[in-house]
């Protein structure tokens, strides 16, 4: 029998290497699928991840809040087609719930959020060599420049939800090599 507390949500906003690293660093996230997602509303694919999570242990609200704070959720920049700021949902209940959460969280931001809640349509996985990009070699310049600051924020602001040992182990080699 399938565990009914395991749910999934698609999240896009920035580079999927960054998004994958953030959500792979959380406790009670079961799996993160990195790739490209299209929605019913926008058939063009953009970089995103599908997060499978234990809803009894980590809430959709937690995931959406972390998502908003770990990408440029208020910036409508020129790369938005490639990096659509979105929450991709798989059913009507999560569509309504996500819109409610987004409406509540927007009060925490000085600028308007560009993040939209949309209906999931299709997924294309990334090529194998790009999966688990950060945790396969966290010392790459891209990782230290773009991903480590997001993980530092994650530990600082969402420490109770973060797998601190996993994140610290990935950052520690950089600290000792300086």
From TrEMBL:
Q: What GO MF terms are annotated?
A: peptide-methionine (S)-S-oxide reductase activity
Q: Which reaction is recorded as catalysed by this protein?
A: [thioredoxin]-disulfide + L-methionine + H2O = L-methionine (S)-S-oxide + [thioredoxin]-dithiol; L-methionyl-[protein] + [thioredoxin]-disulfide + H2O = L-methionyl-(S)-S-oxide-[protein] + [thioredoxin]-dithiol
Q: Which UniProt keywords apply?
A: Oxidoreductase
Q: What's the domain of life for this entry?
A: Bacteria
Pfam families in UniProt = PMSR
State the top-level EC class: oxidoreductase
Q: Does the keyword section mention tRNA-binding?
A: no
EC number(s): the record gives 1.8.4.11
Q: Does the keyword Oxidoreductase apply?
A: yes
UniProt xrefs under Gene3D superfamilies: Peptide methionine sulphoxide reductase MsrA (3.30.1060.10)
Q: Where is the Peptide methionine sulphoxide reductase MsrA domain?
A: 9-143
Instruction: Write down what this protein is called.
Output: peptide-methionine (S)-S-oxide reductase
In which organism is this protein found?
Answer: Flagellimonas meridianipacifica
């Amino acid at each position: 029998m399938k565990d009914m507390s395991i749910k999934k949500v698609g999240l896009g906003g920035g580079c999927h290497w960054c998004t994958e690293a953030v959500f792979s660093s959380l406790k009670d996230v079961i799996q993160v699928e990195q790739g490209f997602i299209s929605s019913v509303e926008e058939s063009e694919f953009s970089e995103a991840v599908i997060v499978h999570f234990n809803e009894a242990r980590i809430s959709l609200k937690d995931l959406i809040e972390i998502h908003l704070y770990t990408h440029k959720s208020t910036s409508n920049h020129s790369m938005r087609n490639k990096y659509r700021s979105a929450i991709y949902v798989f059913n009507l209940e999560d569509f309504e719930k996500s819109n409610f959460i987004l409406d509540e969280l927007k009060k925490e931001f000085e600028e308007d959020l560009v993040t939209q809640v949309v209906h999931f349509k299709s997924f294309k996985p990334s090529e194998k060599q790009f999966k688990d990009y950060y945790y396969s070699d966290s010392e790459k310049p891209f990782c230290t420049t773009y991903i480590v600051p997001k993980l530092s924020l994650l530990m600082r602001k969402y420490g109770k939800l973060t797998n601190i040992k996993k994140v610290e182990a990935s950052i520690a080699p950089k600290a000792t090599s300086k």
